[in-house]
Design a protein that fits this description.
By secondary structure, the chain is an all-beta fold. The protein has one domain: Single-stranded right-handed beta-helix, Pectin lyase-like (Pectate Lyase C-like). Helix content is about 0%, strand content about 55%. The chain contains no helices and 14 strands. It has strands spanning about 10-15, 20, 25-35, 50-55, 60-65, 70-75, 80-85, 95, 105-110, 110-125, 125-130, 135-145, 155-160, 165-170. Strands 1, 2, 3, 4, 5, 6, 7, 8, 9, 10, 11, 12, 13 and 14 form a 14-stranded parallel β-sheet that branches. It is globular and about 40 Å long. The N and C termini lie far apart (about 30 Å).
Amino acid sequence: SSGRSLPASSGTSALSAAQTIAVRGLFDGGMVMYDRGVSCTGQVEGGESDAVFQIENGGSLSNVIIGPNQIDGVNCQGACTLTNVWWSAVCEDAFSIKNQDAGETTTINGGGAFGALDKVVQHNGAGTVSISGFTVSDFAKLYRSCGNCDSMFERHVIIDGVTASDESEIAGTSS
């Protein structure tokens, strides 16, 4: 598809369990491609144990490529920062903001995602998600505000400088 340009990987790593980034922790993956060594199960909602990375509140993940052999890409517990994180093929979703509080912001700077049958970013918590300089191709939705969460919150999204191709919609919200 047009617009598809995944950066070169510096190696690969198949994780046997989700890698956790501690509260306010930083992880720089050095452009290694990480996955879980399992086949995508499509739009079946995975659990947190299915993620490649689990980021605790305030944690940061940078310079990583999420490979195709995974069920659930990256989960964030709130106020996370992603910098130059790429998904070669999205499974259920690429990035889920799970438990963010009102007043907190999760930031996505750069990076990109390809081949999402549904959503790329799933915003379940409260607060704001800011997406800038992101490349996305062959996807259904870049951003989705949770439509079936047990608790509904006021949510905000900022989308700036995104390069999108072969899409259905940029943002979907609940009303």
